[in-house]
Structure formats: C-alpha cells, structure tokens
Amino acid sequence: MNCSLSRMLLEFPAADLAAEDRASLAAHVAGCPHCAELAAGEASRHSVFAKAMQAVPMPPELHAQLLRKGFAQRGARHRQQLYRWSALAAAILIAIGVGFTGYLGSRPEIDTMAVAVSTEQDWEQREAPVHEWLVKQDLPGDLPLDFDFRNYAFHGKGELAGRETPVVVFQNQFTNPFGTKETYTARIYIVDSSRYKNFEKLVDAQASLVRVTVKRHPTRTDLAYVIIYTTETLDPFLKRPIGSKA
Amino acid sequence: MSAPPLGVRDLIDAHYEALYRYAYRLAGNSADAEDLTQDTFSKAISRLSQLRDRDSAKPWLFRILRNAYLHRVRDERRKKIVPLEAIGDLAEEPPEAPPEVDSATLQEALNELDETFRTPLILFYFEDFSYRDIAEQMDLPIGTVMSRLARAKGYLKTKLFAGIGSNSTTKRRVTP
C-alpha cells in the first residue's frame, strides 16, 4: 500500500473497510511516520468532533414527559382498539339480530282458512278438465252426484256392452280389518239412448261384489248414468260436507 | 425463540437520549429538538406493530425523526446556508485538532450547513453510523454519502480548526 491509498482509506470509518484493507492500512501506518501522523490526527479530530457532537445537555424532564405521553398514547390506542372491536362486535350482533328478526318476520304464516280454500280449489281444479271434456262430448258438464274429485282416477271412453262410451272413473283405497289394502272403484258411464236399445228399461242391479246404479238425467231424457261400483253404497265416492255422518 | 415485543418503555429508555441529541444537532435548539423527539416517539408508538426486529429500532427511529424534521423545514428554506463552494480554500494538510470543541460553536457551524450535508456529518460523528448505514438512512447511494461527508468534514475542520496548528499556505478549493 502506498501513502496515497493510505490517506484515502484513512477517511473511511473502520466499519466500512474490508478486513483485508484494514489490515493493509494498519501495516502501512505502522511503517510510515507521515501516514501515522495523519492517522493520529484523523483519530484525534474524530474524537474531538464526536465528543462535541454528543455534548448536548439533556432536558431533565424529557424522559418523564416521553414516558407519560407514550403510555397515554398507548392507553388511548388500546382503548381505541377496544372501542373499535366493541363497535365491530356490536355491529355483528346487530346484523345477526336484524337478520334473525328479518328471518322471523319472513317466515310464512299459516292461514287455516286460506289453506282450506286453497285445498278445495285444488280439488276443484281436478274437476274442471272433466267438466270441459264432458261438454265437448255434447254431454252435461256435471255428473249426476256430487263426486269427490280427491278420488278421481281418469276420464275417457270405456267399453260398455260392446260400445265405446264416455266414462269417468273414481278409485279409493282403504285398509280392510285384516290389514290388507284394497281399492274400490266407481265407473260412471254416460249412456245415450240412441246407442243402446231398451234404454228405458235400465235398472239398478247387484252381484256379489259389484253394484250398478242407474241415474237418469233430470232434463235430458236421452241420457242416463250407469254407475258401476264395488262398495256397499256410493257414499265413499261422494263429497261429505264437514259435520255430516259417513 | 424470538425476543418479546418491544414495549413503550423499552423503546423510550433505549433511544431517547440519542434521538434528542440527533434532533438537537439537526434543529439547532432545544425547543425544536424536544418537539421532534416527542413527534418521533408518538409516530413510532402508533406504528410499533410494524417493527418486527428490535435491532432495527434505532435506524427506524432516526429515520422517523429526520423525516419529521424535513417535514418541518420543508417550507422554511434556511436563510443562512453556506454553500460548500463558499467554504473557501481548505488546507491541504488537515490542521491539528484542538483538545476540544465547544458544543455551541459546533452547533453554529452545523447550522450553516445544508441538511443534506449536516445529517451525514451528525450521524458519522455522533452515532458512529457507517457510510452504509448513513446511505440507508438517507436513501442515497453510498458514493454520494462519501462525497458529501468528505466535503462536510472538510468544512468542519476549516471552520473549527482554522488557524490552529497549521501554517500551511497551500490551499485547494472545494467545489460541490
């Protein structure tokens, strides 16, 4: 190392010099009186400046003031955080409460009268297509008895005495005393006098399992309803107003 | 195992003296220095959760303080700044150091320096920051720090040691 490089390196704090440079500088300074004098001068000036730089009188109350304000600020911050969390928690609780209240308010209300009417309307809607179909067949829309359309099965043409005849069918299920499910049926054939002979002589009949009831139309003398059913009476197929006996 | 989080008391106890002295040397008076120190701790405490590493507390606080100082003086351009071109000729051979320098005299000399030169000088002599530390503190390339420090040190030597132990007549002019 020469004196020029040594003087340049002397300007640097030791911390900024690589260990290798520090060693080279120390070796050069040890053997060079001129650079040693410069190094001593630099160290002396550094020491004097550093000492002067630090000679700042400390305000006696500063430490206490800083602590007081620091703790106050920290406390305020903690309180602020507590308030913030509390507000958040409250907001969540309110949201839950509002949501729950909304849920409670939005639950459907059971109006029993509306349910009864709606159910009846539903049943009546099953009757309407049958009514329309009968009218299209140039037949009276209403059946001769007030049949309960909850038991409605189908309508269309069915064979009666070898002829296709309009028919409406009702079926019902019940459990007999032996625990077996049985189905009973009522078939209402709408018979036109023009298609059958001896129309005037149609009468009720009964076999071991089947009964036949003939109902004449009150106004149209050319029409009769031949009802074939498997129950003792037709009552199980008819509408029973509430309070009436089965 | 990681160190426990730094508390308010730890932070203040460990750094308030150095911060106040730095503030004093930057601002040049005790009133501003106290305000700056208070501001610094106030900002630091409000952001204490950002400080992950205890060892980085000191440079972090110094940076906050310097930013606070720069914010204060941003609009009041210093009137008595001595541009380094005006420092005049410096002795080629550094003058011999006097046994000590008066603190107030040092402050007068510092007050005449622009902050960009004053800060590295204070950090260098006062807190033994390395050039690298100062560069990080001031967001400057290390080369810039070196050149500013060289000029500021030259200025300080001339200002404080003028006429002491030097009869040299060979001068050179410092240009920025």
Number of alpha- plus pi-helical segments of chain B: 7
What is the CATH top level name of the largest domain in chain B?
Answer: Mainly Alpha
Structural class of chain A: alpha+beta
SSE ordering of chain B: HHHEHHHHE
Indicate the CATH topology of the largest domain in chain B.
Arc Repressor Mutant, subunit A
Count the beta strands of chain A: 6
Overall average residue pLDDT of chain B: 77
Low-confidence stretches of chain A: none
CATH homolog superfamily of the largest domain in chain B? Winged helix-like DNA-binding domain superfamily/Winged helix DNA-binding domain
Helix content of chain A: 40-55%
Beta-strand percent range of chain B: under 5%
What is the CA-CA span between the terminal residues of chain A?
A: 127 Å
What is the quaternary state of this protein?
Answer: heterodimer
Strand order in the sheet with the most strands of chain B: 1-2
Number of domains of chain A: 3
* Overall structural domain count of chain B: 2
Extended strand count of chain B: 2
Kindly report how far apart the N and C termini of chain B lie. Answer: 49 Å
Q: Largest inter-chain interface?
A: A-B, 35 and 44 residues
Radius of gyration of chain B: 18 Å
Characterization of the model:
The complex is a heterodimer of chains A (246) and B (176). Chain A is an alpha+beta fold and 246 residues long. Chain A is 46% helix and 20% strand. Chain A has helices spanning 3-10, 19-31, 33-54, 62-106, 112-136, and strands at 152-160, 163-175, 181-192, 205-206, 211-216, 223-229. Chain B has 2 domains: 8-73, Rna Polymerase Sigma Factor, Chain: A; 84-173, Arc Repressor Mutant, subunit A (Orthogonal Bundle). Chain B is built from 7 helices and 2 strands; from the N terminus they run H-H-H-E-H-H-H-H-E. In chain B, strands 1-2 form a two-stranded antiparallel ribbon. At the A-B interface, helix 3 and helix 4 of A face helix 1, helix 2, helix 4, helix 5 and helix 7 of B.
